[in-house]
Amino acid sequence: MSSFKADLHCHSTCSDGTVDPEGLVKLALQIGLNGLSITDHDTIDAYEKALPIANALGLRMISGVEFSTVHRNVSVHLLGYSFDLRNKEIKEFCNKHQKRRESRNLEILNKLAAHKMPISMNEVKEAMGHAPGTIGRPHIAQAMIKKGYVKSIEEAFKRFLGEGRPCYASGQHFDVEETIEIIHKAGGLAVIAHPHLIQNEGIIKNLLSMPFDGIECYYAKMHANQNTRWLEIAKERNWLVTGGSDFHGEVKALIPLGSSWVDQERFRPLEKHYLMHTPH
Ligand code: AMP
Ligand code: ZN
Ligand code: FE
Ligand code: FE
Question: Which residue's CA is minimally distant from atom 14 of ligand 1?
Fold first, then answer.
């Protein structure tokens, strides 16, 4: 048996990770990974920098992205894989999400101001020491720490920014079906992200009846017995099995890159699909 490992879920500085795209490729090789997908929130910008260095250093990469959707008022994350990175549909959808984020982030800042925690958008942008493509709640949480409003990112989410907390805002909604359709139109594979985190069984039931291509069975530091259910579901439906760490670097310091991964057998169909859709 080979010891092939591919981590198919991680974030770079193009969204809310703290390691830049080149750094992710180097880190992946350093820790012995053979394959990688960078699944930034609502952007594929990381690939411009990551692909040339991955090709040069021999790391096998497939395209990836993570989209936030809402189903019956519950937040559901979708992963898209193996689409052509030059595809217009994906880029346009990313742009739409960026706009949703801009107004959603302002809404959150307004709520924070109403709770006597004023922060400007510039302070958010500066909080992580760089100008990220996709600005998310982790950036806002960092700014809150810098301003002395909270002590940790965890505290910021628990008290203010988490779903259902007083300064949470979801912004414009994109539904699951629409997102699957766009990923498919772009020639990609639509995958349910971290089903382990979905609390509501009704939502899970709905998702399982939708035209997904795969499900993220291995996630972060979940124990093997927490993955069994999802592996069985994938088998029943003949869905692809994916897996990854959801590495974010320092903002989620307890989850290292490579803490979940797929072997060569799981990676190959995704890579094959990717290479088929990406003319060389
Ligand atoms: P956003 O996409 O801007 O709504 O932010 C969601 C992101 O915030 C997630 O993808 C995680 O990276 C991060 N996040 C969510 N909950 C927490 C938490 N409790 N602690 C730290 N980070 C979190
Ligand atoms: Zn994130
Ligand atoms: Fe997610
Ligand atoms: Fe993620």
Answer: 138
Q: Which residue, judged by its Cα, is nearest atom 13 of ligand 1?
A: 138
Please list the alpha-helical segments (H only) found in the chain.
21-30, 46-57, 88-114, 121-127, 137-146, 153-156, 176-185, 201-208, 224-237, 264-277
Residue 137: CB within 6 Å of ligand 1? yes
- Which among 125, 67, 62 is positioned nearest to 94, based on CA atoms? 67
* Helices and strands: H and E segment counts in the chain: 10, 8
Instruction: Encode pLDDT of 217-260 as tens digits.
Output: 999 999 999 999 999 999 999 999 999 999 999 988 899 999 99
List the structure tokens of 59: 């790391």
- pLDDT, tens digit, 9 for 90 and up, residues 139-186: 999 999 999 999 999 999 999 999 999 999 989 999 999 999 999 999
C-alpha span between 93 and 255 (Å, rounded): 29
Q: What would the two tokens of residue 139 be?
A: 């950036």
pTM for the predicted model, two decimal places: 0.95
Answer yes or no: are the C-beta atoms of 132 and 15 closer than 8 Å: yes
Q: State the Cα–Cα distance between residues 116 and 133, nearest whole angstrom.
A: 28
- The answer to whether the CB of 142 is under 6 A from ligand 1 is no
